[in-house]
Amino acid sequence: MAPSVRSPAIRLLYTLSSALKTTSSPLLTGHRRTFSAGNPARVEATWWKESMERLRNIGISAHIDSGKTTLTERILYYTGRIHEIHEVRGRDGVGAKMDSMDLEREKGITIQSAATYCTWKDYQVNIIDTPGHVDFTIEVERALRVLDGAILVLCSVGGVQSQSITVDRQMRRYDVPRVAFINKLDRMGADPWKVLSQARSKLRHHSAAVQVPIGLEDDFQGLVDLVQLKAYYFHGSNGEKVVAEEIPANMEALVAEKRRELIEMVSEVDDKLAEAFLTDEPISSASLEEAIRRATVAQKFIPVFMGSAFKNKGVQPLLDGVLSYLPCPTEVSNYALDQNKNEEKVTLSGTPVGPLVALAFKLEEGRFGQLTYLRIYEGVIRKGDFIINVNTGKKIKVPRLVRMHSNEMEDIQEAHAGQIVAVFGVDCASGDTFTDGSVRYTMTSMNVPEPVMSLAISPVSKDSGGQFSKALNRFQREDPTFRVGLDAESGQTIISGMGELHLDIYVERIRREYKVDATVGRPRVNFRETVTKRAEFDYLHKKQTGGQGQYGRVCGYVEPLPEGSTTKFEFENMIVGQAVPSNFIPAIEKGFKEAANSGSLIGHPVENIRIVLTDGAAHAVDSSELAFKLAAIYAFRQCYTAAKPVILEPVMLVELKAPTEFQGTVTGDINKRKGVIVGNDQDGDDSVITAHVPLNNMFGYSTSLRSMTQGKGEFTMEYKEHSPVSQDVQLQLVNTYKANKAAENS
After folding, report:
1. Phi and psi torsions of 547, nearest 5°
2. Quick one: three-class SS letters along 73-125?
3. pLDDT class for 488, splitting at 50, 70, 90?
4. Is 444 annotated as a binding residue?
5. 470 annotated ligand binder
6. Distance between CA atoms of residues 660 and 667, nearest Å
7. Which of 324, 411, 571, 663 is least enclosed, having the fewest CB within 10 Å?
8. Mind telling me which Pfam families this protein's record contains (predicted)?
């Protein structure tokens, strides 16, 4: 793209970087540099400072039907990204029906990308799609790590709803500074002040309005800016002409009161403004704006904007607010985990001066193969560079680097920290971290939780097998907590994940995105088995047939591993001398490992077990690797019952939030499900209950929680540990397993 088309800031950057590239010195060093002798111009090496300050990476999240899609649409229209507005026809003709930026499928606008880039007043704004479902902890974490700030959309009629609470909780957990936008002021029953007080009580927001609406419902005409003390009206067929006028005389008292409230709220968290406020100095617009910015970036305050995206009012001031109050990439501290130092946290400088660190946060199947979206946290990435995938250790060349515009791509030569770019032809999974090889940092922990639930799944028609496997491969790459395997006995495809909803969503996506109908078996919980006491084994495997026979003897013991050990299976050879030749030892270990893959109680893998080999015997002719492997398998089965095996089941850490009036019913139900309540807190009108509940008893819980709490309860569930089941449950599981086995063999 020629420099003439760019904005002045980008143009300056372009000229500077071109000039820098012509010098012999490296592109990024920390010193001033002089050009040729004829040109005494000195350029500060912080050329990127201005570019970074004019960059915003934001997400827009909201409860379903708060108008998030309509708002995104208007932002793209006013910033010139799209040239006409397509309405989303919801149930009531207002707002969007879906909660994700799946605009394209629903209504034919071309937002195909995970990060849409637009320009507003010489600032670059990347709008990043935030996932609608908060159950996928890994996906949500990645999306929120990429954001520097966010807009939380609230409906002026519905107020703070359950999903608003969940989304806000996630943002707080990942320290995302945010502004709030109260939408739909043109609707019947709109009451922004009620929503503001709800945000303070339910979301615990320290917030105040930075605007006051001029009229509400059908009379909604414009907004008064409390910082600049101006009234804004939106003219033109699509509200594109913003006209600033004096404040209407009948609103002056209300405006003065709300401005004072705003100053009071901000001065509670900003010392500089508090000083001016306490000494009764007049507070200028500029100093108030600076104070709001400081408090918002520090996450101590949330400015509240208002408007109606559907009626094209209030969107441009909101964009101004994003530039004024949300942080640029250098103002947000990001940390990486150093893999060389046992995942120790390292704070990244966030500047182009330093080693490259970039996170692949979203993958997309495009026309030209896999498109990988990268958020660069430090350093510079150039086309043709070699980068290293820390998660796999592979070295990759960057073949093509692009910046996404809604549906077309702009090829770029390089990109620096803070930017969001896409690369083609890089084979990776989402959540992988790339560096230039000088450091081994990852942006997210490489310890992926083990899946806790499995489903058998198969396509209805045989013809769609290709699409089916394509879907499963893609989902595995996108989500490290989603696994696909094959059941050796039944030959069925088994998908495993973090819970019922997690797997349901993927089955639904296979149906929607790949048009494959799949039949789903009953969910299965991933049990484990373990031993509780030491047991000796001494087994001789002898088989004489014509020719070479089989001979192998193994002696030793199995015992449980000590609590807190990092490995799940340990094998130790303590044979003194050559009772068993050393070349057979790996075969013995392999045999024990194979035997531990399925315990004899219910056929699930055996964990936390240590096997020690103390003696054995070999035959000069008949001993072979196979003989010792079989001896190990039979020895394990022989001593397994004596080691008092128990079944372990996955126990989940469940956090419930429900209005206090339902507390008794909800806790009674958890006790019925053999759960142990470990905490009970009060949060406003809600009770927050923390419990450890066996996953096997959590099937269908979301439905029963809804019916117990009139739809007001919500819960999150994450894997805690595998712990032994009670004696009666163990007996029941073993009997079921034996009955199934007998039925299969008959």
Report:
1. 85, -150
2. HHHHHHCCCCCCCCCCCCCCCCCCCCCCCCHHHHHCCCCCCCEEEEEECCEEE
3. low
4. no
5. no
6. 11
7. 411
8. EFG_C, EFG_III, EFG_IV, GTP_EFTU, GTP_EFTU_D2
Q: What whole-number distance in Å separates Cα of residue 454 and Cα of residue 493?
A: 10
Average pLDDT over residues 227-256: 85
Question: Is residue 184 part of an annotated ligand binding site?
Answer: yes
Q: What is the CA radius of gyration of the chain?
A: 31
* Rounded CA separation 35/48 (Å): 18
Residue 713: pLDDT above 80?
no
Weakest mean pLDDT among 281-295, 624-638, 705-719: 705-719
Distance set, CA 147 to CA 177, 215, 285, 388, 416 (Å): 9, 34, 28, 24, 16
Q: Say if domain 334-442 classifies as CATH 2.40.30.10.
A: yes
Q: How far apart are CA 553 and CA 615, in angstroms?
A: 8
pLDDT over 60 at 446, yes or no: no
Question: Is the Cβ–Cβ distance between 543 and 549 less than 8 Å?
Answer: yes
**351 annotated as ligand-binding:** no
Give tens-digit pLDDT for 200-229.
887 788 888 888 888 888 888 888 888 888
Q: Which fold has domain 530-643?
A: Ribosomal Protein S5; domain 2 (3.30.230)
Q: How far apart are CA 699 and CA 453, in angstroms?
A: 10
- Residue 183 annotated as binding site: yes
64 annotated as belonging to a binding site for a ligand:
yes
The reply to whether 648-729 shares the fold of 530-643 is: no
Q: What is the pLDDT of residues 160-181, one digit of tens each?
A: 776 677 677 777 777 889 899 9
pLDDT of residue 433: 86
65 is in an annotated binding site: yes
Q: How far apart are CA 278 and CA 265, in angstroms?
A: 13
Query: DSSP letter string over 336-403?
Result: EEEGGGTSEEEE---SSSS--EEEEEEEEEETTEEEEEEEEEESEEETT-EEEETTT--EEE--EEEE
Structure-token match 């960059």, residue found: 55
Tokens 């005494």: give the residue. 40
**Is 411 annotated for ligand binding?**
no
DSSP letter, residue 69: H
As separate numbers, helices (DSSP H) first and strands (DSSP E) second, the chain gives: 18, 40
Return the pLDDT at 420: 84
Q: Is 129 annotated as a binding residue?
A: yes
- On whether 63 is known to bind a ligand per the annotation, the reply is yes
Identify the CATH homologous superfamily for domain 453-525: Elongation Factor G (Translational Gtpase), domain 3 (3.30.70.870)
**Residue ranges of the domains in the chain?**
49-325, 334-442, 453-525, 530-643, 648-729
Was 132 annotated as part of a binding site?
yes
Fold held by 49-325: Rossmann fold (3.40.50)
Query: What mean pLDDT comes out for the span 631-652?
Result: 89
> Is 62 marked as a binding-site residue?
yes
Does 462 show up as a binding residue in the annotation?
Answer: no
Return the amino acid letter for 477: R
The answer to whether residues 140 and 127 touch, using CB atoms and an 8 Å cutoff, is no
Looking at the domain that runs over 648-729, which CATH code has it been given?
Answer: 3.30.70.240
pTM: 0.64
Residue reference for tokens 């083990």: 450
Strand order in the sheet with 335-338: 344-347, 335-338, 441-442
